[in-house]
């Protein structure tokens, strides 16, 4: 233990470790991580070629494919390696927050109608298909332009672009490196929410902890209604990840790289296949930004239909959009030297501090908004980036509460009818295409989001700003 929220697995714990593992968690959250392969996976990550400083484990971490979900690894931009498993299957899965100028009193009487409208307008569910169809040629434009493609096609407002990480577009996307099968899946699923942990939630501001940050985000105080959207790159990104995991296995065999776990599969940045992956990964990231932007447009439309007013007068502004499964080229200080590094954030949110050039001017005095959803029955947090996060976690913070219970265990424990009744008695309405998903996503299947927010705050990764609580949830 370094302090009550910082722990370390020293570099000499295993012969092949290149750097220590840094864990940011309370003792209780750390204890939970000891129950699965989270820490073992983090030790495996610490053996990566070119890894810098430490392999980071965030407070919400749990085991994932190769890398823990809730993990960060920064590798030297020339001598390092990139791992598709260090990004995850749902490339640029992420969260966006919209605000409204409606109060809970305005929304409560229309809540069912509003959820029904959203459910009707935003395609959701397993393998759900979009209302619009794009040609392969157009899909390549989506992959190149990201959120801008959506705005240029009438899905939203020019100013939305200012409130998204990277402006909703990674410029080095190369759709030529994306397989035909990924494109086929993508063409059918653009503008869809998906299923499982993806959701669209109407929230009410529960508590404000940082008035200045809240004000910068247009959050007036308790009772204000907000919208939280969580989805990613759908089948397009999933296929990119699967394709390149297979390719990386071949690269490793060719380069004679031996790994402690084959799920960690990576290739040296100098390899052509890794450059191809980066072009494909960025295409999927841009797809996801376009996807969340289109969904935003339909959410605005739903509010307009219910309230009979345009969404501008309803104040439906984008507060911020963050990615939490991505690899980015950034500059960070390591041992007093500024270095270019590829930062893998797998189930991790960028958390850049006040003053950072990458933070939009509207938030530059308070820090980048960090969005941490909890569960459909408990709450979610809006935090802001801190200077200390740059040194501690390569400017990263938690991305959720993190799973506590397996999907199978949740299904054994809960019955759909009882769960919906329980949520409704707490004032939370659910609209879902699959009863099974609702049960798998029961609030107690996730860790305590307040404990995760506290650990994130006290570890100096991000600062608590606003707590939200759910009013209505659309699940796929
Ligand atoms: N507010 C809500 N949060 C939810 C819901 N379902 C899941 N979650 C949280 O999201 C994070 C991120 O999930 P991931 O798939 O990207 O790892 C997860 O850790 C949960 O805490 C929901 O319905 N509402
Ligand atoms: Mn996802
Ligand atoms: Mn996600």
Bound molecules: the ligand Nc1nc2c(ncn2[C@@H]2O[C@H](COP(=O)(O)O)[C@@H](O)[C@H]2O)c(=O)[nH]1, manganese (II) ion
Rg, Å, rounded? 21 Å
Which bin fits the share of residues in helices? 25-40%
Number of helices: 15
Tell me what the structure shows:
By secondary structure, the protein is α+β, with helices and mostly antiparallel strands. The protein has one domain (6-78, 88-475): tRNA-splicing ligase RtcB (Alpha-Beta Complex), CATH 3.90.1860.10. Helices cover 33% and strands 24% of the residues. It has 15 helices and 18 strands. The strands form 4 sheets. Strands 6, 7, 8, 10, 14, 15, 17 and 18 form an 8-stranded mixed beta sheet that branches. It has a 6-stranded mixed beta sheet with strand order 1-2-3-4-12-11, with helices on both faces. Strand 14 (369-372) and strand 15 (380-385) form a beta hairpin. Helix 7 packs antiparallel against helix 9 and helix 9 packs antiparallel against helix 10. The longest helix has 36 residues, at 272-307. It is globular and about 60 Å long. The structure holds ligand LQESDW3C and manganese (II) ion (2 copies). The active site is at residue 399. GO terms for molecular function: GTP binding; metal ion binding; RNA ligase (ATP) activity; RNA ligase (GTP) activity. Mn(2+) 1 binds at residues 90, 198.
């Amino acid at each position: 233990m370094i302090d009550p929220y910082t722990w370390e697995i020293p570099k000499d714990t295993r012969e092949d470790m290149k750097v220590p593992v840094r864990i940011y968690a309370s003792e209780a959250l750390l204890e939970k991580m000891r129950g699965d392969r989270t820490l073992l996976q983090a030790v495996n990550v610490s053996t990566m070629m070119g890894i810098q400083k430490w392999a980071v484990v965030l407070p919400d971490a749990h085991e994932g494919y190769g890398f823990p979900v809730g993990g960060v690894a920064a590798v030297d931009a020339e001598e390092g390696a990139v791992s598709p498993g260090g990004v995850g299957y749902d490339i640029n899965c992420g969260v966006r927050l919209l605000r409204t100028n409606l109060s809970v009193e305005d929304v409560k009487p229309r809540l069912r109608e509003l959820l029904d409208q959203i459910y009707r307008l935003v395609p959701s569910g397993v393998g759900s298909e979009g209302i619009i169809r794009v040609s392969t040629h157009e899909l390549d434009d989506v992959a190149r332009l990201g959120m801008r493609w959506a705005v240029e096609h009438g899905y939203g407002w020019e100013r939305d672009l200012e409130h998204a990480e990277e402006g909703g577009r990674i410029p080095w996307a190369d759709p030529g490196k994306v397989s035909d099968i990924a494109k086929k899946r993508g063409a059918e699923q653009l503008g869809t929410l998906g299923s499982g942990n993806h959701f669209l939630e109407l929230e009410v501001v529960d508590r404000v902890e940082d008035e200045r940050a809240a004000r910068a985000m247009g959050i007036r105080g308790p009772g204000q209604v907000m919208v939280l959207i969580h989805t990613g790159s759908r089948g397009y990104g999933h296929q990119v990840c699967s394709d390149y995991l297979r390719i990386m296995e071949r690269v490793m065999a060719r380069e004679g790289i031996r790994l402690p776990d084959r799920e960690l599969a990576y290739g040296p940045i100098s390899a052509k296949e890794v450059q191809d992956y980066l072009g494909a990964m960025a295409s999927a990231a841009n797809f996801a930004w376009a996807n969340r932007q289109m969904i935003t447009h339909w959410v605005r439309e739903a509010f307009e239909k219910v309230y009979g007013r345009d969404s501008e007068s309803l104040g439906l502004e984008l507060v911020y959009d963050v990615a939490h499964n991505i690899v980015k080229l950034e500059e960070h200080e390591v041992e007093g030297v500024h270095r270019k590094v590829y930062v893998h954030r797998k189930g991790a949110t960028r958390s850049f501090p006040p003053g950072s050039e990458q933070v939009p001017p509207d938030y530059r005095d308070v820090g980048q908004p960090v969005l941490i959803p909890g569960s459909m029955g408990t709450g979610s947090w809006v935090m802001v980036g801190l200077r200390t996060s740059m040194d501690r976690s390569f400017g990263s913070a938690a991305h959720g509460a993190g799973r506590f219970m397996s999907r199978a265990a949740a299904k054994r424990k809960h019955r759909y009818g009882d769960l919906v009744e329980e949520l409704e008695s707490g004032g939370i309405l659910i609209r879902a295409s699959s009863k099974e998903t609702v049960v798998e996503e029961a609030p107690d299947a996730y860790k305590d989001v307040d404990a995760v927010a506290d650990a994130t705050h006290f570890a100096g990764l991000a600062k608590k700003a606003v707590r939200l609580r759910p009013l209505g949830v659309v699940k796929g």
